[in-house]
Each structure stands twice: as C-alpha cells, then as structure tokens.
Amino acid sequence: MTDEKDTGTGSIRHGAPDLVRSTVLMQLVGLASCGVVALVAWPFGWLPDSQFIALMTALFAAKPAGDLYREGPPRRLAAAGALLALTTVGLLVAATADWAFPVVADHNLGLFTGFLVGTPVGAAVFAWFHNGANVA
What we know:
two-stranded antiparallel ribbon, 2 strands
C-alpha cells in the first residue's frame, strides 16, 4: 500500500512497507550515531556496550511508529501485536544466535541482533493492524 489521502481527516496514511523502510533507516541512523559516540569516546577509554547501542537504536527507530500511533484511534490492538511480534522474533533470533555462536552469548549480542531484526517486524505488524482497523 502506498501513501493514500484520507478524505475524512486530511491525514496521510502510510503502509507497512513505508513504515518498515523508515524504521530500518532510523535504526541505521541510530547505529551510526553510536559509531560516532564510540569514535569520540574511544581515546578516553570508554566503548559503548550492547545495551547502550540497543537503547540508542530504539530511540531512533521508535519515531516512525510513534508518528503513526498519534494518528488515530485503533491503537491498543496494533501496539499489542507489534510488541508481541517484536518479542517473539527477537527471542527466536537471540536463541538461534546464541545456539549457533556460543562465544557471543556472554555479551548479549544475540539478544541485540534479535532486537534489531524484530523492530522492523514489529513496525510492520503495527502498521498492518493500524491500517487494517482504519479501513474496516
């Protein structure tokens, strides 16, 4: 679904592919900003850990879904579905990564990778539920 003009409120609805693209783009911006922080802090002996990187990418990646959340009423089911999808995909990827690469399990990199993969999936589920409820 591409951008469509909503005749009732005048707002523009975005489809799931647009939301996923913007979420992935914002994740990349968050990762780039963490890279800049690491380059600046490295001479002083501090490197960001995986929880800091996950927090920064979440702050950047939440913007597109947050804009869609503020648009209209059918939000609870969409938000619950998005969180369920994010959690499910994140834990499945984390378990697979920790099983396949046991060396990185101590550093929570499997959970971080699962979070990075699960965030666009959660955004797609959120847009699907949100736009499906608006159409019906």
